[in-house]
From TrEMBL:
The lineage of its organism: Eukaryota, Sar, Alveolata, Ciliophora, Intramacronucleata. It comes from the Eukaryota. Its EC number is 2.3.3.10. Residues 166-430 form the Hydroxymethylglutaryl-coenzyme A synthase C-terminal domain. CoA binds at residues 200, 243, 247. One of its GO terms (molecular function) is hydroxymethylglutaryl-CoA synthase activity. Belongs to the thiolase-like superfamily. HMG-CoA synthase family. The active site is at residues 74, 108, 238. Catalyzes the condensation of acetyl-CoA with acetoacetyl-CoA to form HMG-CoA. Gene3D superfamilies: 3.40.47.10. This is Hydroxymethylglutaryl-CoA synthase. Keywords: Lipid biosynthesis, Lipid metabolism, Steroid biosynthesis, Steroid metabolism, Sterol biosynthesis, Sterol metabolism, Transferase.
Length: 431
């Protein structure tokens, strides 16, 4: 795996002041520390190119050895030409044009669909023995209002092949799909989604609950071990902001309590008897959150390192959590099982597991993300607002465009946009 995020960010404490919301609203209420964003020098194609090129170079892969490349994104800059086709530019020198896969779109779920497609290809008679690569990348931007602080940016590249140290267990997984208008992008003239924030949170939690029930019963029906907070070592959730992940963990804890897998404290039992309430009851919710703290710290909290510091990377967000877990110095995934929950508004969701099978420290050794995260350039909220205003002014408004963002702020190896010509064709270069 390889992760990429832009080299500029805005601090959430400073955004609280600039937006005039109460102190702690973003940092405690949403659980976010920093939000990554890029200038007009980077777009969805460039961040996907950067992460793919870093993966191939860092792992010394021959460009000819990739037989499938799938992209998941909801950052659309063209209604027909897929980001996957733009990535083919990187294969030209190797003369490799025999690479299946295109871009999948469904809010934050596209990356998981790309992953499942790649696994299915590898398990099929069409597999030609080469690697699959999955890219999940997005630039998450919102209109002014409470959602804006839940933006972010990031890209992930995952190499799929034989004898992997981390194995996706394809035999048991559970999905929940429904028709909801919780977060969607109906306006071609705007980069921003239309969001019903409360509905999106509720649809997410409902999908989580349905997937959890589904994967538990499928696993038990297949004679395999139970999937619960007790029996599973680590958890990664799609993370629009960290607080929703903690709420998700509380939800699973509550469900395990109700199934008798976990034991509530006597105080919680008497409160439940007194109120006859569930998690929607504020007092009960507070008590369950408190009782789940130990397991939360042990099994999930550390997975939010990248998400807390980069914000929502939509399709990449779940895999940012996985990478944070993999690279956490106190975590050893060998012989351990990780449960992953992927959610995309609309809605599409799946739960599946990964098991650590062999030494995977190569992934940690090859990634320099901790260093890159520390060395990013902080920008002021005012600057961030200017960048957003610029994006808004230029979005879809004309064809020929020359970006003005500084190239010297990009880290070596970063692809950047040099121009959009009068036929809307984009040209890129590399730092
Ligand atoms: N100090 C500490 N906490 C505070 C403070 C403060 N000063 N002020 C508010 N809070 C808390 C609130 O109590 C609330 O906590 P709770 O959820 O535990 O009750 C939390 O901060 C959020 O505040 P709200 O006023 O409830 O919500 P807000 O109007 O800011 O909207 C939302 C939050 C809905 C997440 C919005 O940012 C949004 O629409 N984001 C985009 C949609 C989204 O991310 N949906 C999630 C799933 S879909 C997806 O991935 C895109």
């Amino acid at each position: 795996m390889e992760v990429y995020f832009p080299n500029t960010y805005v601090d959430q404490e400073e955004l609280e002041v600039a937006y005039g919301v109460g102190k702690g609203k973003h940092t405690v209420g949403l659980g976010q520390h920093k939000m990554a964003f890029s200038s007009d020098r980077e777009d969805i194609n460039s961040i996907a190119m950067t992460v793919l090129s870093n993966l191939v170079n860092n792992y010394g892969i021959d460009w000819k050895d990739i037989g499938r490349l799938e992209v998941g994104t909801e950052t659309l800059i063209d209604k027909s030409k897929s980001t996957k086709t733009c990535l083919m530019e990187l294969f030209k020198n190797a003369g490799n044009y025999d690479i299946e896969g295109v871009t999948t779109v469904n809010a934050c779920y596209g990356g998981t669909n790309a992953l499942f497609n790649t696994l299915n290809w590898m398990e099929s008679s069409a597999w030609d023995g080469r690697y699959g690569v999955v890219i999940a990348a997005d630039l998450a931007v919102y209109a002014k209002g409470p959602a804006r602080a839940t933006g972010g940016a990031g890209a992930v590249a995952i190499l799929i092949g034989e004898n992997a140290p981390l194995v996706i267990e394809t035999s048991i997984r559970s999905s929940f799909f429904d028709n909801q208008y919780d977060f969607y992008k109906p306006d071609p003239n705007s980069e921003y989604p239309t969001v019903d924030g409360v509905l999106s949170q509720n649809t997410y939690i409902n999908a989580l609950s349905k997937c959890y029930a589904g994967i538990k019963s499928k696993s038990l029906a297949a004679g395999k071990e139970d999937i619960s907070l007790r029996d599973t070592d680590y958890f990664c959730f799609h993370s629009p902001y960290s607080k929703l992940v903690q709420k998700s963990f509380t939800q699973l804890y509550w469900e395990d309590l109700n199934r008798g897998i976990l034991t509530p404290s006597p105080e919680l039992v008497s409160k439940m008897e007194e109120t006859k309430g569930g998690l929607k009851n504020k007092e009960i919710n507070k008590m369950v959150t408190k009782e789940s703290q130990g397991l939360w710290k042990e099994k999930t909290d550390m997975s939010l390192h990248l998400g807390r510091n980069c914000g929502n990377s939509y399709t990449g967000s779940l895999y940012f959590c996985l990478m944070s877990l993999i690279c956490d110095p106190n975590v050893d995934l060998t012989d351990k099982r990780v449960l992953l929950f992927s959610y995309g508004s609309g809605c599409a969701s799946s739960m599946f597991t990964i098991r650590g099978k062999a030494d995977y420290t190569d992934i940690i050794a090859k990634s320099d993300y901790h260093e890159r995260l520390e060395n990013r350039i902080k920008k002021s909220p005012e600057f961030y607002e200017e960048v957003m205003a610029e994006r808004e002014a230029h979005y879809g408004s004309h064809a020929a465009y020359t970006p003005t963002g500084p190239i010297d702020e990009l880290v070596p190896g970063t692809y950047y946009l040099t121009a959009i010509d009068d036929k809307w064709r984009r040209e890129y270069s590399k730092v």
